[in-house]
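Duplicate of #3305? Posting structure anyway:
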């Protein structure tokens, strides 16, 4: 069991005890306890390493309250059956976020085909995707509008030209980079904008400005997330300080971001533990944005989903900066929720993504990205390696490991 707020933990246990007066442990599910305690199922996950630990606590409550179901072997079998049942089921709290236009836009300076964004929006609608990230809210005084496609700036009129004026089943998200966004001027009141979610991307040392951006977007009526980048290079105390700051802010979702694709699933589980403590303490949702330098983006994403992380980022055919991200087609194929449909994703990939690759747009797993992931470095040098058409991977290895 993970470290927990004693008051919250007692609420969970008391709810379990009340339910045990009417049901056996095998009949009690995570959602039952969530409804009874008033604590979300996702947050309950943050207090327990896995569901078996939760049911062991329920068993202890049973044994202290009565002799009912006191056969430990039978109880163990019930927990295993319950665990299998949960694996066959789905968590309704999961939200899938498509970041193809935003992270994928870093590959081609956001110059997509004329009908690409609209076709992607339609594919997301048919696939049941919850959010579509349209790009950045970049400051036009810092970036030349003539050198980038419209998703670099995400003007409201551009988004409206894609989503139209009718009812929307997919929410619109944009990313606001700390230090690269004139957020007070370029992010308008929610009532005047087609945007639903503002995702504030920040490094640990930029947290004070990130909090100001979150508060500004919150006051304007938006959903907000705090995407803490380059976690693999941060000190644990600094990460915890950032989580404390984010927890005290009005942010809705706190994101785990594996910027360099260097985190392994075992490490990701421990990161989820740490983030989960603060999410539970401040009643926040968690998200995961993974990169595929070591072909672990999908593995890390579903690891987080199993640990109660709700917001899952993915891109079509893994399109994203450098090695790319968790593949949407992999993620939707994994999730059990019948609201998601993989076929529209495959259809879009066939009609738009594969032709784009055939025209020479380059992204995805490659040896230079693998090395930057293994050495926990920003992929900028690997991006330059690929752009220059280099083939001397051993020389590049020596460059990365040089002490000079």
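Output from current build:
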């Amino acid at each position: 069991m993970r470290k927990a707020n004693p008051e919250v933990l007692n609420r969970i246990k008391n709810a379990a005890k009340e339910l045990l007066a009417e049901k056996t442990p095998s009949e009690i599910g995570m959602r039952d306890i969530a409804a009874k305690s008033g604590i979300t199922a996702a947050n309950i996950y943050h207090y327990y390493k896995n569901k078996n630990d939760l049911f062991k606590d329920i068993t202890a409550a049973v044994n202290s309250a009565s002799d009912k179901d006191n056969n430990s072997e039978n109880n163990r079998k019930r927990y295993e059956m319950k665990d299998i049942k949960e694996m066959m089921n789905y968590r309704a709290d999961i939200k899938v976020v498509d970041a193809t236009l935003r992270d994928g836009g870093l590959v081609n300076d956001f110059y997509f085909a004329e009908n690409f964004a609209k076709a992607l929006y339609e594919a997301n609608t048919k696939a049941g995707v919850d959010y579509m990230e349209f790009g950045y809210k970049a400051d036009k005084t810092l970036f030349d509008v003539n050198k980038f496609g419209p998703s670099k700036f995400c003007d409201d009129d551009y988004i409206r030209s894609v989503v139209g004026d009718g009812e929307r089943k997919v929410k619109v998200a944009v990313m606001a980079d700390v230090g690269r966004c004139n957020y007070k001027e370029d992010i308008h009141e929610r009532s005047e904008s087609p945007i639903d979610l503002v995702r504030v991307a920040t490094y640990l040392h930029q947290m004070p400005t990130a909090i100001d951006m979150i508060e500004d977007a919150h006051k304007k009526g938006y959903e907000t997330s705090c995407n803490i980048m380059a976690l693999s290079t941060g000190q644990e105390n600094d990460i915890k300080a950032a989580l404390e700051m984010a927890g005290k802010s009005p942010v809705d979702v706190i994101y785990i971001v594996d910027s360099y694709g260097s985190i392994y699933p075992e490490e990701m589980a421990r990161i989820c533990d740490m983030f989960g403590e603060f999410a539970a303490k401040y009643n926040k949702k968690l998200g995961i944005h993974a990169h595929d330098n070591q072909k672990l983006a999908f593995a890390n994403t579903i690891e987080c989903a199993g640990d109660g992380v709700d917001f899952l980022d993915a891109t079509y055919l893994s399109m994203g900066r450098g090695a790319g991200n968790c593949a949407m087609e992999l993620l939707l194929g994994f999730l059990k929720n019948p609201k998601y449909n993989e076929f529209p994703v495959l259809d879009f990939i066939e009609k738009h993504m594969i032709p784009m690759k055939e025209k020479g747009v380059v992204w995805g797993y490659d040896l230079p990205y693998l090395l930057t992931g293994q050495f926990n470095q920003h992929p900028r040098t690997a991006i330059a390696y690929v752009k220059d058409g280099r083939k001397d991977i051993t020389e590049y290895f020596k460059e990365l490991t040089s002490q000079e």
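Confirmed duplicate; merging threads. The longest strand covers residues 171-177. The chain has 19 helices and eight strands.
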